[in-house]
Design brief:
This protein is of the alpha+beta class and 506 residues long. It is 47% helix and 18% strand. A hairpin with a 2-residue loop joins strand 4 and strand 5 (82-89). The chain is rod-shaped.
C-alpha cells in the first residue's frame, strides 16, 4: 500500500454530547456506574470526520482518546515513507489514540500510528488528560497492574534480550575459537617441521660442500635449488590416483640411483612437481657418492617451501577469521554508516560456520551491483544471525540455505531461504511476538525474531516478512537505500501485534 503521508488533521465539526445511557451502549463503558458515565458525558464530545481524512497522524502529540461510533476506520503504520495498513474495522466501540496517557510523562505521549477515516465517521472524543484521570481514579488496582505489566515487560525484554545476546555471543565465540584453532594448530605443526627441515638442509649442504665440489658445480646446484622452489610454487595439484602413480615411479627411480628410503622422499618431491628426469638434470654435476645428499637437500628445499606455504595459508586463514569477526561486530565502525550487505552476510556465515552441518549446502545469489545502504552494521548482523540460525534449525542438518539480494526501486532486499519443514499457518502470525518460540523448553527465549523485527522496522525504517510452505521458507528483509530522518517508536498494544501478524503473511 503506497498511500500518501497524511497531512494535518482537519478541524472537527461542531461537537455534540452523548448521554450516559448512550455511552453505556459502548462495550468499553458498559460496566461503569451512573456517576462515571455522567462524568464522561460531560467531558467527552462527539465529532465527525470526512472519509479519506486522517483522524490523527503517527508521531503527533497524543492529545485525545477516540471511540468509534459509526463508520469505517483504518490503522496505518509508516514504514520507509509508505503507510502500511495494519487493520480496518467498522465495529462500533473500538478505540484508539492516547491509550497510554495514564503512564504520563514516563513514556513519550505520541500517536504510535495513523488512524484514517475510510468513510464518514462519528467519534466519541475524550481529551488525553481526562482519560488518564479517569483510569487513575476509577481503576487504581488495574492501573498498578497495567503499569507493572508495561514497565515489567519492557525491563524483562531488556534483561532477557541482553542474556540472549550473551548466549549468542558465547556460542559464536566458541565457534570462532574452534575455527581459529585449526589453522593455528596447523601453523604450529608446520613451524616445528620447518625447523627440522632447515636443520637437515644445513647438514646436507655441509656434506655436499665440504670441499668435494668446486665452485661451479655448487653454483649450479644452488640454481637448481631455486628452480625447485619455483617448480614447487607452481606445481599442479594431482588427484590421489595421479599422485600415487607418480610416487611409485619416482620411488623406483630413486632405488635405481642407490638412494635409500626413496619411498619417504617421493611424496614430498612429487608434491613439488619433481620427477626422475628433472632430478637427473639437477644432480648431473654431483659426484655419485654425494648424489643421495644432494637429492635429500633438494627434498628438504621443496619440503621447506611447502611448509612455508602451509604456514602462509594458515596465517591468512586466521587473518580472514579475525577480519570477519571485526566485520561482524563492527567494532571499528561508526554506529551508523553506509555498509555493503554482502560483507555483513559473509561475515555472519563465517561466524556461524561451526553451526552449519555438512549436510547443508549454502548458496549465494548476490546482486553485486547493489549500492551501499545506511545502516547499523552490527545490529543487521544480529538480524542475519537470527534468520540463518532459525533456518539451520528448521532443516535438521540437511537441506539448502540460500542467501539472496536484489534491488527494487529505492529499496534493497535480503532474503534468507531454507528447505526445512516450514512454519505452520496457525503459528505464522505469532512468530514476531516477544517470547513466542516453537523450540523445546530451555532451548529458546522467543526473542530472536522479535529483536530482528525491532531492528529492521523500528531502527532502520524497513520491513521484514515471511512466506512459508514445507520445503520453502523465505524471510525477506527490506531496507531503504536512502537514509530517512529520525526514528519511529515501536507501535504499542493490540495495534502493534495486529501489524506483526499481518506482516508475517508476507
Amino acid at each position: 500500500m503506497n498511500a500518501p503521508s497524511p497531512g494535518p488533521s482537519p478541524s472537527p465539526t461542531p461537537s455534540a454530547r452523548l448521554t450516559p445511557a448512550e455511552l453505556r451502549t459502548l462495550f468499553l463503558f458498559e460496566a461503569l456506574d451512573d456517576e462515571q458515565l455522567a462524568w464522561l458525558a460531560e467531558r467527552g464530545r462527539v465529532e465527525t470526520r470526512q472519509g479519506g481524512t486522517p483522524v490523527y497522524s503517527q508521531g503527533e502529540p497524543a492529545t485525545c482518546f477516540f471511540v468509534l461510533l459509526s463508520g469505517t476506520v483504518a490503522v496505518l503504520r509508516r514504514l520507509h515513507g509508505d503507510d502500511i495498513e495494519l487493520n480496518r474495522t467498522e465495529q462500533r466501540g473500538v478505540y484508539a489514540g492516547a491509550t497510554q496517557a495514564y503512564l504520563g510523562d514516563r513514556v513519550d505521549q505520541v500517536y504510535p500510528n495513523t488512524l484514517r477515516a475510510i468513510t464518514d465517521l462519528e467519534l466519541f472524543v475524550l481529551p488525553a488528560e481526562e482519560f488518564a484521570h479517569a483510569v487513575r481514579t476509577w481503576f487504581p488496582m488495574a492501573l498498578h497492574l497495567l503499569e507493572g505489566l508495561f514497565f515489567g515487560t519492557r525491563a524483562s525484554n531488556t534483561i532477557i534480550g541482553e542474556r540472549e545476546r550473551l548466549v549468542a555471543l558465547g556460542s559464536l565465540a566458541a565457534g570462532l575459537t574452534h575455527e581459529l584453532n585449526n589453522p593455528a594448530a596447523a601453523a604450529v605443526r608446520a613451524t616445528d617441521s620447518l625447523r627440522d627441515r632447515v636443520t637437515g638442509m644445513r647438514h646436507k649442504l655441509a656434506l655436499i660442500a665440504d670441499g668435494r665440489l668446486d665452485g661451479t658445480r655448487l653454483h649450479h646446484l644452488v640454481e637448481m635449488q631455486d628452480a625447485a622452489v619455483k617448480r614447487a610454487t607452481t606445481a599442479r595439484t594431482l588427484s590421489a590416483l595421479e599422485a600415487s602413480d607418480a610416487e611409485d615411479e619416482l620411488t623406483d627411480w630413486l632405488a635405481e640411483q642407490g638412494i635409500s628410503q626413496g619411498w619417504d622422499l617421493a611424496p614430498t618431491l612429487v608434491a613439488g612437481g619433481i620427477d626422475g628426469q628433472w632430478l637427473s638434470d639437477a644432480i648431473e654435476s654431483v659426484e655419485e657418492e654425494n648424489r643421495e645428499a644432494a637429492v635429500r637437500w633438494l627434498a628438504y628445499t621443496i619440503d621447506t617451501e611447502l611448509l612455508m606455504g602451509e604456514i602462509e595459508d594458515s596465517v591468512s586463514r586466521i587473518s580472514g577469521l579475525v577480519g570477519a569477526a571485526r566485520q561482524y561486530s563492527q567494532l571499528d565502525r561508526a554506529s551508523q554508516q553506509p555498509v555493503d550487505v554482502h560483507e555483513l552476510l559473509d561475515a555472519t556465515l563465517v561466524m556461524l560456520q561451526a553451526k552449519i552441518p555438512p549436510g547443508v549446502e549454502v548458496v549465494k545469489e548476490y546482486d553485486r551491483s547493489l549500492p551501499l545502504v545506511p545502516a547499523y552494521g552490527a545490529e543487521l548482523n544480529q538480524v542475519w544471525t537470527n534468520l540463518i540460525d532459525n533456518a539451520l534449525g528448521a532443516m535438521d542438518g540437511k537441506g539448502t540455505l540460500t542467501l539472496a539480494t536484489w534491488q527494487d526501486g529505492d529499496r534493497l532486499f535480503v532474503e534468507v531461504r531454507d528447505t526445512g519443514r516450514g512454519i505452520p499457518p496457525d503459528i505464522r502470525p505469532r512468530i514476531f511476538e516477544p517470547f513466542f518460540t516453537t523450540k523445546p523448553v530451555g532451548e529458546g527465549t522467543g526473542l530472536g525474531l522479535d529483536i530482528s523485527y525491532r531492528i529492521v522496522v523500528n531502527k532502520h525504517h524497513g520491513d521484514i516478512r515471511v512466506d512459508s510452505t514445507p520445503g520453502d521458507t523465505r524471510f525477506r528483509v527490506c531496507l531503504p537505500i536512502t537514509q530517512l530522518p529520525g526514528g519511529d517508536e515501536p507501535a504499542s498494544g493490540a495495534a502493534a501485534e495486529k501489524g506483526r501478524g499481518r506482516q508475517s503473511h508476507g
